[in-house]
Design a protein that fits this description.
This protein has helices at 8-18, 20-24, 28-43, 45-51, 56-86. It is mainly alpha-helical. The longest helix is centred in the C-terminal third of the chain and has 31 residues, at 56-86.
């Protein structure tokens, strides 16, 4: 017997493929940003599959938000270190 539900990773790749037309409409840096967002979904695919959400986009959006939070936290930490080094805390 085969699987009745496709794996999250396969479903994710199909969803990314469905957004191909949208991506084609983006220019330069916007297309690069879109690709980074889709890669964020891939980075957290294990968590997405564990979420067992009936709507795939919910897990995708959460992955993108988590990635953005990590990036922002890293930037804030670097800024805090720089300010401390400059004596501007």
């Amino acid at each position: 017997m085969g699987r009745t539900v496709p794996s999250y990773r396969h479903a994710l790749e199909r969803e990314v493929e469905r957004w191909k037309g949208f991506r084609k409409g983006l220019r330069g840096k916007d297309a690069e940003a879109f690709d980074r967002m889709m890669n964020a979904c891939r980075m957290f695919a294990s968590a997405g599959s564990m979420a067992t959400r009936p709507i795939l986009l919910e897990a995708m959006f959460m992955s993108i938000l988590l990635y953005q939070e990590k990036v922002l936290t890293g930037i804030k930490e670097r800024l805090d270190r720089l300010e401390k080094r400059l004596g501007q805390s």
